[in-house]
Amino acid sequence: METNSSGSKEPQQQQMAETSGQSQATSNEWCLIESDPGVFTELIRGFGCVGAEVEEIWTLDAGAFYHLEPIHGLIFLFKWIENDEPAGRVVLPDSEEGKGIFFAKQMVTNACATQAILSLLLNLQHEDIELGETLIQFKQMCQECDPYKRGQNLGNSLQIRQVHNSFARPEIFDLDTIKQQSSLTEDDFYHFVGYMPIGNHLYELDGMQEGPIELGEIKPGQNWLDVVRPIIEARMKRYCVGEIHFNLMSLVSDRQRAYERQIATLQKPGNDMLLDSNLSEAERMIEIADLQRLLEFEMEKKRRYHKENSRRRHNYLPFILELLKQLGETGQLMPIYEKAKERSILQANYQFSRLNAMPTDCNDESVKVETNPPPK
């Protein structure tokens, strides 16, 4: 769980390390991780896993899921509610069913982002995904352990913690002062859980629970996404009208690798698959060109992820201080401050008027619940 005591405010702000002027969490601490597909994709790469990436899902409409397939699992971020009852049956880890599922209790504060993605990866068996040496060794080490010991092993894993904490941002201000001034209540905690099919059942993997939560059967020929979507929507509807701090991401196969394989197949002369497909030479060239455009898009996306992650880690404090100094010396600082102050007052008045007009019924079924993109 991402706790308020560690600075969590909302899904897009879960990125601060508990240090002052440092770019890494210290000792055995785990930093807060931003709920962003670029961060999670680079986390997976850092663990040594190959063939998987993370994509964000903006709506619960079926079309938002199917174009990303194969989807191996979902990562859901939501506001944690104390004493919230599980949505299904908790599977005992020492039962026959539980023994077939890798489940770890969350024993470390702020580790739930990494724990959610590892819960999916360590239960996944797919030809596209290669776990890599670090995760294979971790899984083997934990195979005979109970969920509590697995959680402790995760917290003590230097390699995994270093990758996680590589996303710690340098702190610009003293967080203790910010926390004292924060208007957040003690209930403003955010938590990651995973959803995935295992066998012919759907499970929720939540390190705050005592075991995996079995949510329902996946019937023969049924897409597991059709089972999980109503469950996530029902969970979101339990919150008051106006609550938008949700984030949903999917664990998918690396699309760049898939496109590269398809292009190689189409370019290979005398390929039996091409002979069976009845593609003409012109059609084959058109398909290759289409795949190359998609491949370039994926490569550009990864370059963008890398650039954004570099910016997340960069310390902008010297630049900010120099900018303020120059604005002050040229007489531009106070006019900018006054305009910002005026805009802030207008926004506060607008939000206050919206709150007064908002219905108080938290179970208003007339409201369509969907994930919302973060404000820019």
From TrEMBL:
<dbReference type="InterPro" id="IPR001578">
    <property type="entry name" value="Peptidase_C12_UCH"/>
</dbReference>
<comment type="function">
    <text>Catalytic component of the polycomb repressive deubiquitinase (PR-DUB) complex, a complex that specifically mediates deubiquitination of histone H2A monoubiquitinated at 'Lys-119' (H2AK118ub1). Mediates bisymmetric organization of the PR-DUB complex and is involved in association with nucleosomes to mediate deubiquitination. Does not deubiquitinate monoubiquitinated histone H2B. Required to maintain the transcriptionally repressive state of homeotic genes throughout development. The PR-DUB complex has weak or no activity toward 'Lys-48'- and 'Lys-63'-linked polyubiquitin chains.</text>
</comment>
<dbReference type="GO" id="GO:0016579">
    <property type="term" value="P:protein deubiquitination"/>
</dbReference>
<feature type="site" description="Important for enzyme activity">
    <location>
        <position position="206"/>
    </location>
</feature>
<feature type="domain" description="UCH catalytic">
    <location>
        <begin position="29"/>
        <end position="253"/>
    </location>
</feature>
<dbReference type="InterPro" id="IPR036959">
    <property type="entry name" value="Peptidase_C12_UCH_sf"/>
</dbReference>
<dbReference type="GO" id="GO:0005634">
    <property type="term" value="C:nucleus"/>
</dbReference>
<dbReference type="GO" id="GO:0004843">
    <property type="term" value="F:cysteine-type deubiquitinase activity"/>
</dbReference>
<dbReference type="InterPro" id="IPR038765">
    <property type="entry name" value="Papain-like_cys_pep_sf"/>
</dbReference>
<keyword id="KW-0788">Thiol protease</keyword>
<feature type="active site" description="Nucleophile">
    <location>
        <position position="112"/>
    </location>
</feature>
<feature type="site" description="Transition state stabilizer">
    <location>
        <position position="106"/>
    </location>
</feature>
<dbReference type="Pfam" id="PF01088">
    <property type="entry name" value="Peptidase_C12"/>
</dbReference>
<dbReference type="InterPro" id="IPR041507">
    <property type="entry name" value="UCH_C"/>
</dbReference>
<comment type="similarity">
    <text>Belongs to the peptidase C12 family.</text>
</comment>
<keyword id="KW-0378">Hydrolase</keyword>
<keyword id="KW-0833">Ubl conjugation pathway</keyword>
<keyword id="KW-0539">Nucleus</keyword>
<comment type="subunit">
    <text>Catalytic component of the polycomb repressive deubiquitinase (PR-DUB) complex, at least composed of caly/calypso, Asx and sba (MBD5/6 homolog). The PR-DUB complex associates with nucleosomes to mediate deubiquitination of histone H2AK118ub1 substrates; the association requires the positively charged C-terminal tail of caly, probably due to direct binding of DNA. Interacts (via ULD domain) with Asx (via DEUBAD domain); the interaction produces a stable heterodimer with a composite binding site for ubiquitin.</text>
</comment>
<dbReference type="GO" id="GO:0005737">
    <property type="term" value="C:cytoplasm"/>
</dbReference>
<keyword id="KW-0645">Protease</keyword>
<dbReference type="Pfam" id="PF18031">
    <property type="entry name" value="UCH_C"/>
</dbReference>
<feature type="region of interest" description="Disordered">
    <location>
        <begin position="1"/>
        <end position="27"/>
    </location>
</feature>
<dbReference type="GO" id="GO:0006511">
    <property type="term" value="P:ubiquitin-dependent protein catabolic process"/>
</dbReference>
<protein>
    <recommendedName>
        <fullName>Ubiquitin carboxyl-terminal hydrolase</fullName>
        <ecNumber>3.4.19.12</ecNumber>
    </recommendedName>
</protein>
<dbReference type="InterPro" id="IPR017390">
    <property type="entry name" value="Ubiquitinyl_hydrolase_UCH37"/>
</dbReference>
<feature type="active site" description="Proton donor">
    <location>
        <position position="191"/>
    </location>
</feature>
